[in-house]
Amino acid sequence: MFQQPATVGQQYWPPGQITTTSFAAGGRYPQPNPVIDPRVPAANLSNSTGGVGCEPGYNYFFPAEHTKIHVFRTGATPPWQLPPNFTIPFHALHVPTNTTIAELLKGFGANNPSSKKNVIFECHQGGNGRWYRGMVISGDQKDRLTTPIKDLGWDATRTGLRGGKPVVYLYVTKD
User: Fold this and answer.
1) What pLDDT, in 10s, does the model give residues 77-93?
2) How far from chain centre, in Å, is Cα 86?
3) In terms of CB atoms within 10 Å, which of 66, 83, 134, 156 comes out highest?
4) In angstroms, rounded to a whole number, what is the distance separating the alpha carbons of residues 1 and 93?
């Protein structure tokens, strides 16, 4: 009996070359290369084979609770020093609420050997297009590094939905 090869876009995959798992009963098709942003190393899963993403045949078991975090990308100028209504580029992420401050610093690329230069600034909207500096945590605050972010109020309630709490806005530096 002849079996028709599976198609993905304009590519053809002969039978037996698509990995099937119980979670993806229809087969697992080859995926494009991941987009890797060295400024946010935690945005990609590094696997045991040295690659990125889950190994073929594996799925990821997500933590039960996440918060939404927007990390501002304003370079050396903090958001609260920018002119009102400045368009600020950012990286939006879902972050597990059991993530510690140390893991957050590392995951956002704040890896300066001088730990006091690795700093997370919480930012708050001030209205009229302005931002204000909130809580500040640096890598040399050893007592704070093991704190889970949910203990800072950065929990699943930070959805940004109307009538709810805003997402968490951060500015991270390592200089």
Assistant:
1) 999 999 999 999 999 99
2) 23
3) 66
4) 48
CA–CA dist 100, 72 (Å, integer): 20
Q: Convert the pLDDT of each residue in 97-124 to its tens digit.
A: 999 999 999 999 999 999 999 999 999 9
Q: Please state, in angstroms and rounded to a whole number, the distance separating the CA atoms of residues 164 and 20.
A: 41
| Residue 5: DSSP 8-state | P
What residue type is 167 in one-letter code?
V
Range list of H helices, the chain: 101-107, 142-145
Other Cβ atoms less than 10 A from the Cβ of 136: the count is 11
Q: 66-173 in CATH: which number? A: 3.10.20.90
Amino acid letter at 130? R
CA distance 19 to 7: 14
Residue (of 28, 35, 21) closest to 6 by Cα position: 28
Structure-block tokens of residue 10: 């304009």
Q: Where are the domains of the chain?
A: 1-30, 66-173
Residue 137 burial by Cβ neighbours in a 10 Å radius (0-12, 13-18, 19+): buried
Q: What is this structure's pTM?
A: 0.77
